[in-house]
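Input structure tokens:
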């Protein structure tokens, strides 16, 4: 349980810091456009990175709290047997998808290590690491959901 809370806190803090970074860089761009100061060249790229990380951290929290779209109009018309099958199949297939994505995200990060960011000059593996955060956090909460479904369906 402590591990689960720690993951949730890391995702919350990451979401907040990334969102505040995004807000700061966008405000800096806006202020510089209406003043005689030139907009710093790195703000556009920094905004992109902050946005990627904000979405990456928040996606795990969205899965944890089930803040995603449900197609209840179609689901409610299905027979109970089909609903039970869908209740386990959809999270399981999503889990497989995001585990595969996490594996390939690691490879993508490794490919980005020798590359440098054009305007900020940092390692592009840092920028690509957001994909791993997103897929790993979603996978973690999907695994918990699948295990809970399996536990509750046993007689």
């Amino acid at each position: 349980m402590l591990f689960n809370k720690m993951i949730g806190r890391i995702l919350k803090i990451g979401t907040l810091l990334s969102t505040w970074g995004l807000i700061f860089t966008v405000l800096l761009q806006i202020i510089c456009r209406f003043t005689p100061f030139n907009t710093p060249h790195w703000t556009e790229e920094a905004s992109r990175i902050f946005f990627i990380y904000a979405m990456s951290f928040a996606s795990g929290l969205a899965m944890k709290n089930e803040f995603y779209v449900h197609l209840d109009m179609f689901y409610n018309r299905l027979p109970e047997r089909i609903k039970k099958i869908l209740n386990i199949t959809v999270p399981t297939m999503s889990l497989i998808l995001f585990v595969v994505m996490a594996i390939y995200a690691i490879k993508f990060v490794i490919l980005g290590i020798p590359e440098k960011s054009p305007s900020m000059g940092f390692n592009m593996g840092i920028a690509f690491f957001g994909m791993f955060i997103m897929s790993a956090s979603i996978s973690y909460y999907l695994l918990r959901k699948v295990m809970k479904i399996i536990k509750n369906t046993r007689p």
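DSSP finds five helices and no strands in the chain. The first helix runs from residue 2 to 33.
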